[in-house]
Automatic annotation (TrEMBL):
A UniProt-annotated Pfam family: DmmA-like_N
Cofactor(s) this protein requires: FMN
UniProt name for this protein: PDR/VanB family oxidoreductase
Keywords, alphabetical: 2Fe-2S, Flavoprotein, FMN, Iron, Iron-sulfur, Metal-binding, Oxidoreductase
Boundaries of every FAD-binding FR-type domain copy: 3-105
Annotated InterPro entries: 2Fe-2S_ferredoxin-like_sf, 2Fe-2S_ferredoxin-type, 2Fe2S_fd_BS, Beta-grasp_dom_sf, DmmA-like_N, FAD-bd_FR_type, FNR_nucleotide-bd, MRET
SUPFAM superfamilies, alphabetized: 2Fe-2S ferredoxin-like, Ferredoxin reductase-like, C-terminal NADP-linked domain, Riboflavin synthase domain-like
Organism: Paraburkholderia sejongensis
UniProt cross-references to PANTHER family, sorted A to Z: CARNITINE MONOOXYGENASE REDUCTASE SUBUNIT, NADH OXIDOREDUCTASE HCR
Occurrences of domain 2Fe-2S ferredoxin-type (ranges): 236-321
Length: 321
């Protein structure tokens, strides 16, 4: 089940860095687009039928456009390749309204923004919003090389440029990203936000946790879930609490697919266990968590799971549906 969509037109396309292009989306009618906050993303329905999620990276105060940026990944699932090859200026697309699963913490005394590669898209939007509100923040932007660094001119010209440090892996004389030093020098109560490749994010989060940063001050958004093997590869059943109906989930089928085949629709978005859209309460049974959304504490509670990817360790899961 997809989210309601609206029609937009591709008003501009621009090459931002090697392999990265930005796309400006505007209302077909010229009317203001729905408001959004930093960290929001939209579902983009592509010409080849795929649906992909892209973070909005323009200033949230803008109402005349949404800006997304896409890194071409020929080894990916086909979405980024389709965007680069098929989406042109003047094309009409369908997108969802913005949804925010990576929000800023308004109570934080200081914000530490860490971006790796294309993960700069939501992070840059956060910098725009924080700067506009006068909030305290620092931003570190790590890339493989200068030629792969998007939005360099925009950052250099921004009023918050002095709060941003760029780090390039191939620049020995440049600024090294000393994560431990950055974490140690963060003011008390700082909230950390990180987005980028999974290896970069795992490194940041593991280092922060090892230094005692509490989970409620760590905010992150994965682009894709790392591959995980289920604890058990067999079939199981889900029982619907409201009706008592019992549905078989075979090994080759997700819970979402099994429910849909029986007329029970669950709203999904990423279908990889990343975004949390399909989060469902578990009343009985033990889930086999295969997502990248829940925290370790939330997984241990076993009272919710993501049916788009997760399965069951017990023979039956009773769902609050």
């Amino acid at each position: 089940m997809s989210h309601p969509v609206m029609n937009v037109v591709v008003a501009q396309r621009r090459d931002e860095a090697l392999g990265i292009a930005s796309f400006e989306l505007a209302s077909e009618t010229g009317e203001p687009l729905p408001a959004f906050e930093a960290g929001s993303h939209v579902d983009v329905h592509l010409p080849n039928g795929l649906v992909r999620q892209y973070s909005l990276c323009n200033d949230p105060r803008e109402t005349h456009r949404y800006l997304i940026a896409v890194l071409r990944d020929d080894a990916g699932r086909g979405g980024s390749k389709a965007v680069h090859e098929m989406v042109r200026v003047g094309d009409r697309l369908q997108i969802s309204a913005p949804r925010n699963l990576f929000a800023l913490a308004p109570e934080a005394p200081h914000h530490l923004l860490l971006a790796g590669g294309i993960g700069v898209t939501p992070i840059l939007c956060m910098a725009e919003q924080l700067a506009a509100s006068g909030a305290s923040f620092d931003m570190h932007y790590c890339t493989r090389s200068k030629e792969r660094t998007a939005f360099v001119e925009r950052i250099a010209q921004a009023g918050f440029a002095n709060s941003v440090q760029l780090h390039h892996d191939d620049h020995p004389g440049g600024s090294t990203f000393a994560l431990e030093q950055v974490l140690n020098s963060a003011p008390a109560g700082t909230h950390l936000y990180v987005c980028g490749p999974s290896g970069f994010m795992d490194f940041v989060l593991a280092t922060a946790r090892a230094k005692g940063w509490p989970q409620d001050r760590l905010h992150y958004e994965f682009f894709a879930a790392p591959a995980q093997q289920p604890a058990t590869g067999g079939s199981f059943q889900v029982r619907i609490a409201s009706s008592g109906a019992t549905i078989d989930v075979p090994p080759e089928c997700t819970v979402v697919q099994a429910l849909a085949a029986n007329g029970i629709e669950v709203i999904t978005s990423c279908e990889q266990g990343v975004c949390g859209t399909c989060l469902t309460r578990v009343l009985e049974g033990e889930p086999d968590h295969l997502d990248s959304y829940l925290t370790d504490e939330e997984r241990a509670a076993n009272d919710q799971f993501l049916p788009c990817c997760s399965r069951a360790k017990s023979q039956v899961l009773v769902l609050d549906l």
